[in-house]
Protein 1
Amino acid sequence: MGALSHIRVLDLSRVLAGPWATQILGDLGAEIVKIEKPGEGDETRAFGPPFLQTQDGARGDATYFLSANRNKQSVTIDFSKPEGAALIRRLARRSHIVVENFKTGTLARYGLDYATLAADNPALVYCSLTGFGHDGPYKDKAGYDYLIQGMGGLMSITGQPDGAPGAEPMKVGVAVSDLFTSLYSAIAILAALIHQGQTGEGQAIDMALFDCQAAALANQATNYLVGGTAPTRLGNAHPNIVPYQVFPTADGHLILAIANDRQFARFCSAAKLDHLAADPRFVTNASRVDNREAIIDLLKPVLAARATADWIALLEAANVPCGPINTVGQVFADPQAIARGLTVSMAHAAAGPVDLVASPVRLTKTPPEYRSAPPLLGQHTDDVLNGALGLSPEEIKKLRSDGVV
């Protein structure tokens, strides 16, 4: 039994930030009831290609949807209709957690806001994810990951430096602002559950992508707040550590990740560059940061003289952190990924076995569970409405004919 097997989550979220958070809870055992609009569903079902191919050769859901929606039951309810909103309120009374990521004020129009639902269920934990939160001058703005990567500062420090080929602000190749918010949201929900268990009280959680992205600037934020200088784009270099970047090799690239002076000395010894280790400009990390261009210019031709695999073998033997730049395919073929079980095969209702990325959480007593593949649209509507709300087949049929479910 998962650690959260006693918890029911009413998931009103879609796209990535909300669904990723609820998938984490589902992997930990929670029952996730995902509410989707009849006939349309989560937008990511159409975020392709690529699309899943069903066993009869038809086009299924986009693989984007598969990434964030396992261990969930799909229930189609149109809550813009009064009867649909009433069903959601009934489900909320029987849930421990509600997660939603609609624009500020949207759900209040249907009586699905925290104040309304908590009046019926004071123990309810209600997590709202928006672009900018529920107050401030931007509270009514829509928030998309790409916009938040820009507005939250990430793109100002990502990409080649001014003057270098291809220099421009650059987004990260994955929607990390969404994912940062998902992780912070899951942590906040778990904290609220502990409080709920101790006091019986629920609470509202106001999560903003903008806030989470600013927090995830980490050392770059404190570089500015304490140091007083706004960081800039450095390409693959590190603002505080040198040499800590990508170098061209004879057949590709090498990541050299030297994090302290002892590692630098070992690198110089292995690479037969002992004179650099003794050079006053490079003895300490601080001096290497001050003389960044000089040390990098000296290292580039040396590292370009050998193949990546040769450097990795030499430097790993000397206990110097380094590594290749893998493609996504190489990641999952890597012996470490295989040993750690980073993929899991699940039986999809329409496509048969589907490989998904496994949860990285490792718990010895309550490990993640893989109970059900990402659902078909509305796959569990009848089961949930009957099992959780006690509706008869006739009542469900009437709701379906009225376009409510």
Protein 2
Amino acid sequence: MTSTIDTVQNAIFLVNTTMQLDAFSQNIDHDLPLAAKLRPKSLTDFFGQTGIRSQLEKLVSHPRHVIFWGPPGTGKTTLAHIISSQIGREIQVFSAVTSGIPELKRLIQTMMDQRREFGKESILFIDEIHRFNKSQQDALLPYLENGDFLFIGATTEYPHTSLNKALISRVSLIELKQLKVEELTEILHRGINDLERPDLEDYATDLAKLSNGDARFALNQLARLSAFNKSELQNKEEVLKEIFEHARQYDRNANRHYDVISAFIKSIRGSDPDGALLYLAIMLDGGEDPEFIARRLMILASEDVGLANSQALQVTTNAHYVVKQIGMPEARITLSHATVFLALSPKSNSVYKAVDSAIDYVKKNPTIEVPGHLSNVSPEKKNYRYPHSYSGHWIDQRYLPIDVNESFYKSSTNGSEKVMVENWKVVTKK
């Protein structure tokens, strides 16, 4: 049994943790941000996510551990509060960003004490669950296994790469999509009514289109818009430019990060310098680490340009060095240099495919013995013929083991690789 002192301390901690819940559930603080004031209290008032509506209804009728994942502003936190309200369990909100394991264990102990002493069932909601490392995530496992409380998590990252398999195996995963323009427009209409600013109606669709499916973001921009008077609102283009100039979304650790770098690489691979420069600009504008971009360019130089232009590897290696030495904003020019160079270069993935083919062969076969004449210790090493001692610096001798009859390298006919292969064929009489 927990001591009286521990019980009091845990109760104090619980009060501090639930202060934000009181404001949410009672909505008595008129100074709350617009997005917080307009959070729906039931699934009936919840906009969007039509594709998973039946799953959400089942969560209410048959509660189970769940992790909501998806872009910001799609309703993850709101759904946790809705479930709490509709099943009659108090929700304890915990942020993986600002708190660690000691605070989490204290909160869990308080919840378990209340369950044991008063029969009170609770919900533990952990926001940004992906911020927990492996050991922190593992700390949750025994409680989830025993059903000591209902667990709801939220993350903006793809769970199968950001969360432990053991944690995933104990929860349901539900993906939330970006809200559609018409859904955001409906939400914005509610906000306009709450602000009692019918003169903002003309902006609803524009805000919805520019908010990247993020309801919280859209309502925050609407709140900013409400600071403009009627005469200022007449110049819509200038107003929208002012509001959204510093509001572009780019998260270095979330889906958009991976989408943009993917588009960047594919544009270079497809020899489109304009597309590559656009995605480079998006990354730089979003605060992406320039060294990360430079590393990706070095990989691409061998993977997609390869022997068709071997200077690509030299250019990107130099670019990586320059980026590390000078940093931003000047590094943007060097990254542009390397990006356009790769996009304009002839392409070949022959070296990439060749090494993977060789590795695949090695994995599928038992230990491959080195031929005696190539060995460093075999008596047969005396039979090795030194190519530089012969005309053309080449002599016909076997390098593959006698039982290996594979051809791993398949040449392309692009750029300098074509010339290199033709010269090779002349020298080796292929």
Protein 3
Amino acid sequence: MEQSVERQLELIRRNTVELVPEGELKEKVVKSIKTNTPLRVKLGLDPNRPDIHLGHTVVLQKLRDFQDLGHHIVLIVGDFTGFIGDPSGRDSERAALDWNTVKLNAQTYFDQASKVIDYEKAEVRYNSEWLLPLNFKDVLGLARSFTVHRMLERDDFEKRYNEGTPISIMEFMYPLAQAYDSVAIRADIELGGTDQRFNLMVGRTIQERYGQEPQCLVIMPLIEGTDGERKMSKSLDNYIGISEDPLDMYGKTMRIPDQHIGKWRQLLTLYSHEAREELETELKNGTIHPMEAKKALAFDIVKRFHSEADARNAQDHFVKVFSERELPQEENIQIFEITPELVSGNSVRIIDLMAAADLAKSKGDARRLIKSGGVYFKPENGDEEKITDELHELKCPVNGILRAGKRRVIRCMTKGEII
């Protein structure tokens, strides 16, 4: 607790969208320094899928900032709330997970989060610890603390209500359960993205109902996913996991739209706001080419979550295979045999081939890759051509090299044919 109040607030404010309310937060910091008592800083994680992605690291980094200031962080794995499913930012109820899936997913969080936070100094809790023992009387008491009118102030609930889309009572319980987490651990501060602001505010209300001093909120920005449009999300499959293969991490970063380079730089590689503005000015006036800026960004992201050697290898691979339009050595290209099941008439659809050969996660993902301009086919003894039509078909027999998503290369051939 040697840092001054202003120094602490300066670090806390860095890269945030909003401090709620900032005056109360300052009072908590002052009291913490005077009494030499660390603040309890809460972050909840919903283990709906096993990977922590780059978007999560924005708020994890803020958690690390609090650690560096000497405060106590509490990482809450929402194993119980995973059953309910949080629809924040969604148009429908998120499907609940079964217990085993939630537990398995949660196990991966710790090692991954330790890439950013000091895990050894973190308090890790599962909210089933206090939510499972609640009886029906306890639940009714919790529900009594908040009104339906207030609940419908949440944007996604209001939208669905006005559209006549069903909202289950159980969905109303999610922000209440998340708020009760703050009561159970006596949180002084809670962190979350802008899409969680309502839920975090509910925590303030519920803490007061239970006789506690309400927590302050540190609201963090969201980053757009690799599609450049929607927030990075595991559910939307537009994310980059922090434990992904370095080549994939580098290649996916190279796919982001140019207009997001500065934002990713500031939030993911800890550029200052001033450095970001300088970079964006250079991009605008042409002093630096977007491709070079993205290469530097991708290099630093891989370096941060893997190593400098991995970053250098990923960059060399990208430059050799994609920037210079060179293909890997013959012996390094995997051969994929096209089976009769993939053939319709006398041709095979490109999206079917990509999905079957694991060049795309699904046919929908294959369509997105094609639309983004990242799919090429080079027939044997022919020139490489970009695939621009998602309905494109390859005539049989197929013999050639298919590249997809700037990350994967295969040699495809009709079964029985020799290239």
Protein 4
Amino acid sequence: MTVEDQLDILRRGTTEIISEEDLAEKLKLGRPLRIKLGVDPTASDVTLGWAVVLRKLRDFQRLGHTACLIIGDFTALIGDPSGKSKTRKQLTRKDVERNVKAVSEQFYKILDPEKTEIYYNKDWLGQMQFEDVIKLASRYTVARILERDDFTNRLKEQKPIAMHEILYPLCQGMDSVHLDADVEIGGNDQKFNNLVGRTLMTQYKQTPQVVLLCPLLVGTDGTEKMSQSLGNYVSILDTPNDMFGRTMSIPDDLILNWFELCTDVPMDEAKAIENPRDAKVRLAKEIVALYHSVEAADEAERYFVETFSKRKQPVDAEEATIPNQVVEDGAAGIAQLLVALELVESNGKARNLIKQGAVSVDGTKFTDPFGKMSVADLDGKILKAGKHKFRKLVAG
């Protein structure tokens, strides 16, 4: 494959390459390039938004290059300040270790394990002495750090910036130095951090890495970037039916963007689908097929049509046992049940969903946010949360 052919593949789903000329020169070297992607395990699920940069890493793998995936088990303890209007709550070591275990098992749904090198930045950042930290801090000026928009905005609004946040970009830059990376992939919000890596590599007499930036995927709400904390996400671990249903719920103006960032469908083919509903069905099937199978995608489409287009109760909904921890005196709290079955993220969000009239049991709306139902009455019933989430309840 020619250099230009490789660049055509790598340009898809990117907003900026710094610089494309440098990337072309590296591709001409005729050796596998070391492609770095750093991920902080701040959540337990890989979402389609997170998958955007993982899929770009996979593109490099398919072109014969080496994926160097850095698990930020050290930097996650600091918390990336990128795009944040206030200091992030710091995770505990236990939180980080739990998330590392969860996401590590999901990466290979996207990446080729035989072409992936896994690193943990605690192995080098965690070994630094305080003297080393002082020397690292001397390599970058306060003025340059404060050029980043989120810090500038917080200063204008008189919001505090903690010292550990200022160190975060330097830590990420040292990851690039440690790996001697040829290319670093990041979301648009990582541009500053990635460029710090280029600066530090130059200071350490290394060839600076090329920076390849990808857009942030807008979530199912159509407004905010996909985030587990906002609940507007699709997880690559979702069941085929949930994955299909959530994708079908996105606004029409996101369809082409999701085709570009979440699938391998040629864009001219995606643009040729004139009917938005047909395009959305194709999009949903492509996504389900990527993380499950073509057969699962076909079945998810059938389920969606039967359940939503024909307004039927989904008698074949996924079964879920009512957990004992939500049952007291033979009755289950519906808000707590929604959380226990992972249909919503918190009791607060569950109660809001109930208040909105978006929760029902066997087609009857449940309207009391603090209400309970007997386990006997729930047994065998269909619990619906939102537009596309169903579970057939089974008494424990």
